[in-house]
From TrEMBL, chains A, B, C:
The lineage of its organism: Eukaryota, Metazoa, Chordata, Craniata, Vertebrata. It is a multi-pass membrane protein. Keywords: Copper, Endosome, FAD, Flavoprotein, Ion transport, Iron, Iron transport, Membrane, Metal-binding, Oxidoreductase, Transmembrane, Transmembrane helix, Transport. Its main location: membrane. Residues 259-401 form the Ferric oxidoreductase domain. It catalyses: 2 Fe(2+) + NADP(+) + H(+) = 2 Fe(3+) + NADPH; 2 Cu(+) + NADP(+) + H(+) = 2 Cu(2+) + NADPH. This is Metalloreductase STEAP3-like. GO terms for biological process: copper ion import; iron ion transport. Its cofactor is FAD; heme b. SUPFAM superfamilies: NAD(P)-binding Rossmann-fold domains. It is found in: Endosome membrane. One of its GO terms (cellular component) is endosome membrane.
Length: 450, 450, 450
């Protein structure tokens, strides 16, 4: 069924167009308004086999060809009188009151409010509720505002097909649901008209749950990248004139990403600990958490996905390392020096073990994180019950955190105890990054044992 | 709930089988026909606790054991008379008229048409509509044709669980919806009986929205691969006898894939530009686009995913390069030559910067494309509103295109200005591939500034 | 709509809280019980604008502040008498009979059973069915048991939002569906009350379809890893004192994973062959398969995904190989030896072809497996009809199997015919792994030609 809406509307050629249910004798629907939305709505309705009459205050000013030929153009009174039961209000909510004269003509009919909210934070009533106050004898239904004109014109195959609908009138809702289905959308019943506020605001949202986590992750990246520039490029350049600016593009990014991913992963499990401490401290688990903690708890999924993104990019960057020009340069010169020295390179047992271990931990950690990311897909998460969800998210989460910390510690090996690891008396960034995760992991283990 | 249909039907052992709602006293259902579909349907119905009677013209010819024991076998009249309200028509639509004698016995009952269309392009009525014409006093419901016999027998856990249903009778639809639910399927109301045409054709589809984009991508691949074979293998072999046929398996594929991915990505954004030009030229945005442009606009998602597939394969292929036997061969011989020359390899600042930059752009571009691919998953896209969808698809899309072009240009570096880059007077394939994307990107920027 | 439940409940600050539909004059709802679930339910109901009265046998013992202020606390009789039509039974099913005195007060009201099953295998009636027996004059609806207290308190944005509902009373179901929607959940109608058994067991499941395939895959891994330890580490150490223990961490894992992935992929297609043989042998396709084969057939998706996981990890591990310390060691020493020998490394045409071919087959095989994995996502699979699903799963599956076998055979090249490939007279593990897949593939081809 993925394709049933992708046929061009009103195509004049042969083909699947004749498969449209034009034979359906559906009652005439009126649209008040002649803007972009009214036009796209009319197009889709006509293509779905519905008779449409458009009502406008100044019919004569509508350019010919704006609406499809099958659409009848009338003044507002004429359009309303032709509508059997459904009237779309495709005009600005500010102009609703200009229709008060039609109150009796609209009585008993279903008025579909397709307007969006003007801003995110509405005070007072929603547009649909105000419409219901103005026309108490009509059945007001909220709907179709979440659909774009593009989706109306070409079918909803690109974005979502859902049409959110709410109304206090079961009868009205039923008719709009039926029409939405006929037009190829998936109507979703959102309950009573009080839900209109939420529906009107829906199209204005721009990933609200992501902004916080993205900002946090970005700031962490800036910090670690800046620290890396200072410690790995600027200070060596100033102190010894050592030119390593080429590291800006890839090396330093690849050094910062794992630090960011590790800290972000710890931030996923940190608020849970905080909540547990708070409950212990307040002596009851029946007190509401402060709202910042609530917000944090609700952004754990986003933080986890950003951590996965960072870890995955780090993985790909690391795998790119042998492809670099400088990598060839180093190998060749190492071989050259070995030849000059006249001996084979000696076997470095510890070095070999170190690289095998940190690579293995890294790969496995990334693998576990991928499983977590997959289960956070809505369609996969929906097949899990709460017990399974907790098992996956907590169980696999702890394993991923443990493996990531081991990856970092094996990478660091015993260098943390050598003075050379602290040029300019500053610790390497992976040591900074591993502190918070270690605290979280230690407390997670302690909490579980209790 | 992912598992409620995976219990074996009619298992004679202990276990979850006794959890089936056999106690439900549902009214007897008749199935007319004794083919594969009738049999699987009977199996599933019995397993869902429904009493089933199968009606066949020649009951005696049905091998014993074909239907489960709980099923009663009768002639057609007998079966119909036993059915309380539901009759499944599991016979070929051509034989519907042979049942005209049962017209009065079927009056008032719900007839479920489970047939598929014979071919994709139907002219005239659908099977269900013809059935409704033949039995005007019955309630005809279309449904279950999208379900395979395998899904009926073992549960729908493999493919989709949706059962598309349509009818002009609300009463009939309600009963079939209820039964479908009892059988463990997800009934989807598709509206009036005129939707039957679409439902009957649904099982015949074979990824129609993919054929065009796949063909285009494949032709592009053939072109770039063929160009590579000519320029990199055949001509050098003919001119200088240089044997590089080993490059056929991996090297040339890895050279063609990024070119294909880049051009395909440009093809995602090209039709939008075209549409904008067309609107400017015709002076109105209220003219319908030509159907080829409409089709193209509706295949952008598929083109984008194919571009991502190409880019991802290119990424993995590139990361494989150091694993090749020839890579070791080259490094060792480079070191050998260096030793012979008696000097270390000199520091190649430009070469180092070049490789750092093109690798970094490539990784980031692939990362952004992955995000785009994830949001094109239906369950993720459904959570986005139109504004968010546009933000992700356009915003991230431009970034991905820009990064891909930069990746190509950094890879090319200044070689485009050297005569050695044009052996046999033909440009390298990445130069060919970057032309269209550059045009698209330049116009995208210009369109946005206006 | 992904966000409508993430607003903190009962927040005392300004913000989106005032957008809640508090104005909705919904009838009072009673909750019997004062445990954790009752409390969370009350919180969510109040936050959704519903008037709530909680009934408890010992009201005085409830600590103040346990329930939000808007909730009225009464004894059980008082609570039931205030409830207009809905009563939540938030107490242990064992205590249902203690409410028998309220039988007449509860008559005509909707009783919502929110209990879970005590264990996976229930014999006898479900809790909801027993409740319906105890209160024959009430409308019993099963529901909300699949929702956790955490989801009730903070919104269902983490896990699933589905609320599974069933009842023999259409009226009662309708009211609960409406309330669930008002609370921000997605009610799913599961049919009659006999479905309660299944719904009560649902929260106890822990990935039942995964346990078998995971155990099989894990045992295969143990076998191949153990075989590798024996053949590659222990025997050489005992026989020649050769220390290769460093290979435990990465090398041997990377040697075992592809073997596991290959055998598991063959296990996906093996039961289908078995089923075909069985049908041929029994001479009929109308006999039910034995239950072990049925189970196996129904676990193919899980086996396929585990095979993909193994193959993907193998891919990443292999790409890590050049990053290892030992890899640098080997290259440098090869170069050193070449220099000592005084000649360039000779061109090894066969070796070059071998590596190009097995890498190419491996990358393509993994790519095809990824496509298979993507189509097994529920939201993607739902958009495919049966024909498309079979095309993808069988068609691409055979290609993936063929490519994987070619990858293995090219990797093995002609070494299988050299005696050095059999140290200690044991074949290398990839030879063991390739046997079953070859048998499966050969029979698949033969079956298709018939």
């Amino acid at each position: 069924m993925a394709e049933d809406m992708t046929t061009p509307l009103l195509s004049d050629s042969e083909g699947p167009a004749d498969a449209l249910p034009v034979c359906l004798t559906s009652p005439t629907v009126a649209i008040l308004g002649s803007g972009d939305f009214a036009r796209s709505l009319a197009l889709r309705l006509v293509a779905s086999g519905v008779r449409v009459v458009v009502g406008s205050r100044c019919v004569n000013r509508i350019p010919s060809g704006l609406f499809p030929d099958a659409v009848e153009l009338r003044n507002q009174e004429g359009a309303v009188s032709q509508a059997v039961c459904l009237v779309f209000m495709a005009l600005f909510p500010e102009h609703y009151c200009s229709l008060l004269g039609l109150q009796s003509a609209l009585a008993g009919k279903v008025l579909v409010d397709v307007s969006n909210a003007a801003e995110m934070n509405i005070h007072g009533l929603s547009n649909a509720e105000r419409l219901a106050e103005l026309f108490p004898n009509s059945l007001v239904v909220k709907g179709f505002n979440t659909v774009s004109t593009w989706e109306l014109q070409t079918g909803a195959h690109d974005g979502s097909r859902q049409v959110l609908i709410c109304s206090n009138s079961t009868e009205g809702k039923k008719k709009v649901v039926q029409l939405a289905r006929q037009m190829g959308f998936h109507p979703v019943d959102m309950g009573g008209l009080s839900a209109a506020r939420e529906i009107e605001v829906a199209p204005l949202r721009l990933l609200p749950s992501w902004s916080g986590p993205v900002v946090v992750t970005f700031l962490l990246f800036l910090f670690f990248y800046g620290y890396g520039v200072l410690l790995g490029i600027l200070l060596p350049f100033l102190a010894q004139g050592h030119n390593a600016f080429y590291r800006l593009a890839l090396d330093l990014v690849n050094e910062s990403l794992p630090a960011v991913a590790l800290v972000t992963l710890a931030l996923v499990y940190f608020p849970g600990l905080f909540a547990a401490w708070l409950q212990l401290w307040s002596g009851t688990k029946y007190r509401r958490f402060p709202s910042w903690l609530d917000n944090w708890l609700q952004r754990r999924k986003q933080l986890g996905l950003l951590s996965f993104l960072g870890a995955a990019l780090h993985g790909v960057y690391s795998l790119c390392l042998p492809l670099r020009r400088i990598s060839l340069h180093r190998i060749v010169n190492t071989a050259y020096k070995q030849v000059k020295a006249g001996t084979e390179e000696p076997w470095d047992e510890l070095g070999v073990w170190r690289s095998e271990l940190y690579l293995s931990c890294g790969v496995l950690g990334l693998g576990v994180l991928s499983l977590l990311a997959v289960t956070s897909l809505p369609s996969v998460g929906n097949t899990l019950n709460w017990r399974e969800f907790t098992f996956v998210q907590s169980g696999l989460g702890y394993i991923a955190l443990t493996l990531s910390i081991m990856h970092t510690l094996f990478f660091g090996w015993d260098f943390a105890f050598h003075i050379e690891a602290y040029p300019f008396y500053m610790p390497p960034s992976y040591l900074l990054a591993v502190v918070l995760p270690c605290i979280v992991l230690q407390n997670l283990c302690r909490t579980d044992h209790r």
